[in-house]
Amino acid sequence: MSETHVSTEGSLEPRQYEIRLKGCLDARWADQFEGMSLTHESDGTTILFGPVADQAALHGLLRKVRDLVLPLISVIQIDPKQASGLDFNTDTNHNRSKKERNT
User: What CATH number is associated with residue 73?
Assistant: First the structure.
């Protein structure tokens, strides 16, 4: 017997995530992160940004990140209200909590 699980947040749309890595991820890896944009920041970090269907897909992305052997700095779910007005080719430090900015 199979069960259907319904999101408690009431939305079936993918969530937007920002995954920040320490180091420069070569553009040839972009194909491994289908649907995600890849941005290199001036501080030497790489940002992956884009839609993630669900928690299972997020865990799959994080496994790929682990296999790259680049240190993971942060994983942030972006509020859809914020994402619509932001340019993710610039520093997104303003999207983080004060604690995250200080680390």
Answer: 3.30.70
